[in-house]
Amino acid sequence: MCPISAVSCIALNVTQFEASRGFFIDVWGLVPVGETEERLDFSAAAGSAPLVSLYRSDRDGLAYIQLKATSREAVDKLHKRAVQMGCEVSGLVDDDHGYSFSLTDFEGRTIKVTCPPGKITTVPEQASGLSCRLSHIVLNTRDLQKAADFYVALLDMRVSDWSEDKMVFLRASSEHHCLAFNLGEVVSLNHAAFEVPSIDALMRCLGRLRKFDALTWGPGRHGPGDNVFLYCLGPSNFVVEYTAEIQYVDEDTHKAKVWERKPELLDQWGTAGMPPEKLRACMTGASLTGSSA
Ligand SMILES: [Fe+2]
Predict the structure, then answer these.
(1) CA of 227 to the centre of ligand 1 (A)
(2) What domains can you pick out in the chain, each with its CATH number?
(3) Taking the model in full, what pTM does it have?
């Protein structure tokens, strides 16, 4: 069994701190759940654990990603394993935010592994913000095979699919992917995706994006993962996605396949067309003012 169950939070270093605050509240529909001079936390509803943390910075880039461990024992197991694998590893911390540690992966990214304290908070039905959760994070890597090997060895993740030799999709549960890697020249964030409960909810998100003239690409339905998508460019050119109906695989029968990179891989419906050039550039991370990972 995989010792992590999901990606639980994405933390970004941002040069446009105030603009980012406005974006995640007004355009993206999250609610602020914590704030200091240097940091802002957002979630789907007041009282829920943060899905997004923003750090005031003079460089844009990924600060860290947080993975949710299935138990305190899983945190201990992964801490030991990360040390054995030669990763730079922090000490174990036990506080109000949970039982956790951080590690640095083979390309310098910071990964936090956390077992939340007590009962895991779920979003109430009448949430004040958008009913959503963090679905998946896609990262740009210079070595796709090494990325797959590293995360399979460290986290017992499974490979769900490949997009030729350009992308690999990794799962921690039967959900098709919660982490994926894209081959690129810059070690950076490609995009972070937020799952909403239905296509109806996704279309309401589309309405809000249209109101703010913020839709960049979609709607469409991806090939690998079978998920419906809407993409949006936030401040500092970070790419975020609303998604729905991601595939849940049968662990006994699913075999990873190599998808041929043709238009149907990007969008089975054929409604979205090709992603705009600017979106593609931002996904590579090359347009950021700097990358901390
Ligand atoms: Fe995605």
Answers:
(1) 8
(2) 4-115 (3.10.180.10), 133-284 (3.10.180.10)
(3) 0.94
